[in-house]
Design a protein that fits this description.
Layout: H1 2-27, E1 28-29, E2 33-34, E3 40-41, H2 53-58, E4 61-64, E5 71-72, E6 74-75, H3 77-85, E7 90-92, H4 94-106, E8 114-117, E9 122-123, H5 135-141, E10 145-148, E11 156-158, E12 164-166, H6 170-176, E13 180-182, E14 199-203, H7 205-210, E15 216-218, E16 220-223, E17 229-235, E18 238-244, E19 254-257, E20 263-264, H8 268-279
Helix pairs in contact: 4-5
Length: 291
Amino acid sequence: MKEKEIVISTLLVITSFLLSCVSFSDRFSWDPIINKEGEIVKKSGKEKIKYDDETLISFKMVVFYDENFTTSWVIYPRDLVNFLESKDFKTLNAKELHRWMSLHVDKNSAYGTVCVMSMGIVPRELVTPRNKECVFYKYLFAGGRVVWIGDYPLWVIGSEGGYTETFGDEIAWDILDISGGRLTDYETGVEMTLTTPAKSASITEEGKKWGMNVIDNAHTFFYSMNVTKVFSDVHPLYCCSWLKTYNFNYPNSGFIRYRSTLYDARDNQLNEDVYRLATYKLEKQKEGETK
């Protein structure tokens, strides 16, 4: 009897381990960095701030990309970065982005600026402390705009070297006041993962106005009642791409979630959508003003 219990316990441990591996591979992937010999390498050196404050604060459109961090639900983010750089975006690493946001908050110059988060994760320093006192939220409240692709917003908190922490949807609720989850298959009731086909999401008129052209796909959903503008939805109550504004003195500012599924940055049609969402009416407007 004891031998049978030992066998069962062993099988449970092995099963648990295998499931954790599946979960890990479902959520994480590194952006391939190719050396001169054509080999894939991973960078481990710490990045530094390469710009002085005056130069940093002059940047109006930036994209976060840091080779010292892992990605989550984003593959080949460097392709998106290259595309945005061709559109006059400046690429900032984690330390530079923290300083950039801090400067715009301190100088009250965040409105009319935008940051594209290209890796599906958020650097730890941007959401420390893990509440509305963090620079990430302060930047949004000051009128800044963030465009997020990849994993569920703020699900994965990253550190240099590829180290990560996950807190589920808790941090997104504490900082961004958004709530959602994984979609389930209507027929089987099973929660969807990246290995199951995504659900097609309809682009709304608002989404079309902002420049969304690619039919949206979704593995996760968000409650439409928690956001300001819905860009795509799978149900009248559930949206996939959206904008949430935190300070209505700054129209069109806030947090944009684009596509609730894996992002393949080799697809320039997706990158074009990101660019249009990032730059739509980015110029400063007064409350109530239309253009």
